[in-house]
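Aim 2, interim progress. The first record below pairs a target sequence with its structure tokens.
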Amino acid sequence: MQLNEGAAFCSRCGAQVVTIADDLSFDVSPKSRLAATLLSCPWLVVGLFGAHRFYVGKIRTAALMLLLGLSPILCGVGMAVVAITSVPDAENPPVLFWVFYGLTFLLGFAAFIWALADFIIAVTGNFRDRQGKLIKRW
């Protein structure tokens, strides 16, 4: 049975008609997939600070990622300050040193995992810009 041209539903079964243009239509972002991929790479360090999210216009999550990426540095500075100002004759560093040490590791690991996840999503072409458009063009 052939459908009438322009029909929205099948006259026999009532199923909605999907045209090829409807099925293949998706919005593609004008942003570069290569740029988003390189900026999200955690091994290039900028991915840890959310550079790729700033690039695609996701400012709020980029700022959050920037704070998460900077927090291990700040904790490392705190750890150094505690180590320098503590009593040099003490056998064990103060507890605050170990708190900063643990926070440095945990926050750094969290930033790395987030950047790695975004990197994998960008490489596979499933990363989206601020408008929700896929970034597919290399």
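The second target in this work package is listed in the same format:
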Amino acid sequence: MLPLTEKQIRSSFVNATKRERTQLSIPDLDAQPWESLDFLGWRDTKFPKLGYVVAMVDDTPTGILLKLAEGRTLSRPQCSWCEDVTLPNDVVFYVAKRAGDAGRKGDTVGTLACANFECNVNARRTPVSAYIGFDVEAAKQQRMDALRSNITRFVAGVRDGR
């Protein structure tokens, strides 16, 4: 992912009001490992039930405001984005208001995602060799490609109201 500025990030949100974009907390952009990110995701320091994701969709930064859903899951869920089965972190259910008229009418979409958006790290973790001759690097690349595809599909779906 290419480095983004605070202005680019704030203006990228498609399902947030102007007030929400102004109030959101921005992470330390200088500390981000941009070359190792498929998307930028963070939790709000002022409002712990809010999360933000910015991904490149059609070569344009597209931001989504997410809200942590109430309640707990009965079993350990799998992240829909990184699809990691050996997660070292919690997975939670986030809800995002759709962009445009659909969102104004109350239409939302939900997703299971790593609680603090650790997907970039999870996808890049070296997988266990499944058998002799197993191509570990190819498997890691496949996981990163799947993450990019999953996050892009989700963000585009919220943006386009589908």
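The mean pLDDT is 91. This observation will shape the mutagenesis plan for the next reporting period.
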